[in-house]
Write a structure and sequence with these properties.
Helices cover about 60% and strands about 0% of the residues. By secondary structure, it is mainly α.
Length: about 120
Amino acid sequence: MKRFHAPKWPRLENALSLWVNNALNAQQDITGNILKEKAIYFANQFSINDFHSSDGWLAGFKNRNGLRQFRKQGESASAPPAEQLENERKSLRAFLRIYSLKTYGMATKLASFGEWNLHAF
């Protein structure tokens, strides 16, 4: 029979558990390193000075919350993590912001003179 070990920092683990549930509901990938970083963030928010995000703590947190790690395969394995995807979107928006007004203005001028059929695209 396994013994249940109560967490040393229940407030931190409750906050992290809530964050994990929200992230999983949003279909975000969560790694052990992400869990450790979030735990450090919550420890700072709750002014917990004696917290160390060790591998042992991580294993205990996963056990207490029924979390397991899976390796993605196939098409989902080639997809970038959500954080990287959001950064790529921001970069693309910044890149397109430079050209979109100029391109739109030029296309409008050409279309108004009948030199370019916008509906062909």
